[in-house]
Amino acid sequence: MNPMWLGAALGAFLGIGLVLVARRLPFLHRPSADERISPYLRDLEGPEVFAGAPDSGSPFFAVRRLFEPSLRGGARRLERLLGGTTSVRKRLARAGIDRGLEEFRIEQVLWGAAGFGIALLISLVALSSGSGNPVGLIILCAVAAVLGVLSRDTHLTSQVRRRERRLLAELPTVAEMLALAVAAGEGPAAALDRVARSSRGELTKELQRVLAETRAGESLVRSLDALADRTGLVALSRFADGLAVALERGTPLADVLRAQAGDIREANRRELIENGARREVAMMVPVVFLVLPVTVVFAFFPGAVGIRLIAG
Fold first, then answer.
1. How many CB atoms sit inside 10 A of residue 114's CB?
2. Cβ pair 74, 116 in contact under 8 A
3. CA geometry: angle 224, 172, 212, nearest 5 deg
4. Which of 15, 165, 225, 235 has the fewest CB within 10 Å, making it most exposed?
5. Which residues are CB-neighbours of 132 under 8 A, at least 6 positions away?
6. Cα 228-161-174 angle, rounded to 5 deg
7. Cα-flanking dihedrals φ and ψ of residue 194, to 5°?
8. How open is the CA angle 99-70-5, to the nearest 5 degrees?
């Protein structure tokens, strides 16, 4: 490795270390209100009492405990830079992630730091072999950090899609179970409680949340409306609206639930047919661009070789 670049790398690491040490000095670090009162509230129950303590089950627990002030500062700067607070909160709720916006921004900072670290390691290897352009490697590190931040946002979107698919797959079965319970003579709240106790899944967790809000004093209709707003699925919104309308107007609930289950299954069948049609078109890509050229080469290559031999 070039001694100049080795010295620059060592100097950069030394400078970063000195800055981190200086920021943690007591006379330079002004504690926030949460940090001042948190030692006196640790023995109280509830997740919101001490918001500064991260989840001990997280794989980044040690890193977050060590660099928590810097991570929270980076999360606030990232929030001001990216924005989209409402969209992120909605997607967190739709993904079923019980986590605040600041925790998500901290995860984005960690993903960006991981991408930057991988790119930095690749850059150091390239510099040690003498085959790297320093300016290009710096740009590579910056791009890797940005891609790491954006990858966490993309991963959240994929989490939302996977959960929505699970909700749609569970909805017809839950609707028919509710219809059976209501037809057997149980009330709506009792039927919801029976289904929530006898089944497992994402929709069951949402029903348990509806029941918890009902037991806390909220009306069942408002809890169902909140379920529809929280999930954002059209089919689940129709399901919750149908339950709410049946409860308000006294229409036969079992018939409404059976009809909704049939409609959801029909919609799922149409979606499968559409996905099959799209996959059929996608299957033509390897056939046209891979199989067909190879077939043409195998068909014409022996003839071309024979013509060359005859001509020779």
1. 17
2. no
3. 30
4. 15
5. 123, 126
6. 50
7. -65, -45
8. 125
pLDDT in tens, 20-78: 777 666 656 666 676 667 666 654 444 443 344 444 445 555 666 666 777 777 778 88
Q: What are phi and psi of 175, to 5 degrees?
A: -65, -40
105 CB contacts (<8 Å, ≥6 apart)? 74, 75, 76, 78, 79
C-alpha span between 290 and 303 (Å, rounded): 21
Tokens of 23: 């920021």
Closest CA to 97 of 161, 159, 169, 162: 159
269: nearest Cα among 241, 232, 235 = 235
**What are the CA-CA distances from residue 203 to residues 21, 79, 192, 212 (Å)?**
48, 31, 11, 14
Angle at which helices 68-82 and 3-23 pack, to 10 degrees? 100
* Contact between residue 210 and residue 229 where contact means Cβ atoms under 8 Å apart: no
DSSP class of residue 54 equals P
In the structure encoding, which two tokens stand for residue 237, read together? 């919104």
List Cβ neighbours of 96 (8 Å cut-off, separation of 6 or more).
163, 202, 205
Distance CA 58, CA 65 (A): 11
